[in-house]
Amino acid sequence: MEAPLTWGQQDIWRAVVAAAPQERYLNIARVFPGPRRPVTVERARRALDALVARHESLRTRLTGPRDAPRQLVWPAARPHVEVTSEPAGLVRDRLAAEPFRYADEWPLRVAFVVDGEHVTDVVLVLCHLAADGHAADLVVRDFRLLLIRDSLPPVTAATPRELAGWQRSEEGTRVSERAVAFWLEEHARMDPVPDAALVPGAPRFLEATMSSAALAAAARAVAARHRVSSSTVLLAAAMRLAGGLTGQRHCGMRVIVGNRFAADRRDVVSTISQEGLVLLDLDAPSFGDLVRRGWSAAMRAYRQAWFDPYAMEEAVSAAGPGIRSFGCFNDQRLVQRDEPGTAPPDERTLRAAAERTEVAWTDAMDRNICDFRLHLGGEPGRMEVSLYADTALLGPAGIERYLRELETLVVDAACGEL
Amino acid sequence: MLTDGELRERLAGLVAEATDGEVEAAEVLAGTARLADLGVTSLGFLRLIDAVETEFGVEVDPGAFETLDDLVRDVRAREPR
């Protein structure tokens, strides 16, 4: 069965085309332990068959021309499976190291890590056209259950084919047009972004990752003070520093939005996350004011992140010279709910933790769709922030400085200095 | 049409559903606390707004309410007469 791509798939496809052949960074990897009561490889293979039968998106490949592919859903699929006794992390990295072959490979790669007869860990690498982060977690949940049960209640959420159909309906078009209108209104308030002025390095795009316990604790403390999420605190800080780079007072940054707050989209196994647009007036009396402003702006943005990406691109590219959003903010932390506070950390502890912060170079690419991208990940007690930037915009020293300043800004705010 | 009391109870129920029961309807009905102070997260607000819009056919502005009573007033003001 053939169908058009969904909006979410189109978004990913644009990113694939822009970064190919180095788009492996889009792969989504998950590792989970086998059940406490051990299962054999044969049992695990049966669970995988049931998983693939359950979710259309795991039986879907692309077909058609590269500039306008369609999705092709197959009645059955046999994804790549390895049985190995290597460490799970190593297997995960190896399986995630190559981009998927979208027309002739199934969109998941699986490894069963075994100790003798039994499966100790399961490694899953998903193609981003088949799943976003939340969908990957749903796939993991189902896989774990199928390892211990023979069947699951039927899927009630929409399939990617059904989503694509709705998106082309009158109602879907109206929803998209509303989002485009919102983005255009926000673009009308933006100050221009100056052109990138540096001589780019080779490779042109560099990623540095900061690992910081201080930032995790400080963001939580500021969030609790203002009754917002730590994500909002970090977004406000990221945008304030972005404004410092661009000289903008009214700055727009794109945020990755899960799009799962509507009840009928909550359990969809497909890529439905898209970009929202947060516009902030950075001229705020204090950082706390900016955070509160950021919360309202983000809430508005989250509701306008469900649209036809080609229509959006066409509309916003005509917004005027230099009138564009700057960068993309992606909070991928698994724990989206901040743990309710133990006592906030004192200043000495925070500053001492900041002394132990590390920054490392973690990736390099020649091409990308985005010139400035922040990823938030890590564990609840230790945040990892990656900044991926075009070296024509920000050199290596600038990339590292941006990350360090992000930590300093939030730590200072937590210590009551802003 | 629901009375104010019924609307208040229904909306408190939607808050509980939007937060997967992390915030209970009884807590919401008990006082005048801000929903954020009771533990409604950004995702909870977004789910709540979607549920209210679907059930009552009105548009809700995320910035327009902080408490249950604000939300009751907002929905009432936007209901078709």
Question: What would you note in describing this structure?
Answer:
The complex is a heterodimer of chains A (418) and B (81). With 418 residues, chain A is α+β, with helices and mostly antiparallel strands. Chain A has helices spanning 7-19, 41-54, 88-95, 133-148, 160-167, 170-189, 213-226, 230-246, 287-302, 309-316, 347-355, 396-414, and strands at residues 2-3, 28-33, 60-63, 70-73, 80-84, 108-115, 118-126, 205-212, 250-257, 274-281, 328-331, 358-365, 372-379, 382-390. Chain A folds into two domains: 2-164, Chloramphenicol Acetyltransferase, CATH 3.30.559; 173-414, 2-Layer Sandwich (Chloramphenicol Acetyltransferase), CATH 3.30.559. Chain A has twelve helices and 14 strands. In chain A, the strands form three sheets. Chain A has a seven-stranded mixed sheet, sandwiched between helices. In chain A, strands 2-7-6-5 form a four-stranded mixed sheet, sandwiched between helices. In chain A, helix 7 (213-226) packs antiparallel against helix 11 and helix 11 (347-355) packs antiparallel against helix 12. Chain A is globular and about 60 Å long. Chain A starts with a strand and ends with a helix. Chain B has one domain (4-78): Non-ribosomal Peptide Synthetase Peptidyl Carrier Protein, Chain A, CATH 1.10.1200. In chain B, 63% of the residues lie in helices and 0% in strands. Chain B is built from five helices and no strands. Chain B has helices spanning 4-18, 25-30, 35-38, 42-56, 68-78. In chain B, helix 1 (4-18) packs across helix 5. The longest helix of chain B has 15 residues, at 4-18. The N and C termini of chain B lie close together (10 Å). The model of chain B has no long low-confidence stretch (mean pLDDT 90). The chains are: A alpha+beta (418), B mainly alpha (81). The A-B interface holds A 227-229, 231-232, 261-263, 295-296, 298-300, 302-303, 336-337, 340 and B 34, 36-37, 39, 41-43, 45-47, 49-51, 54, 62-63.
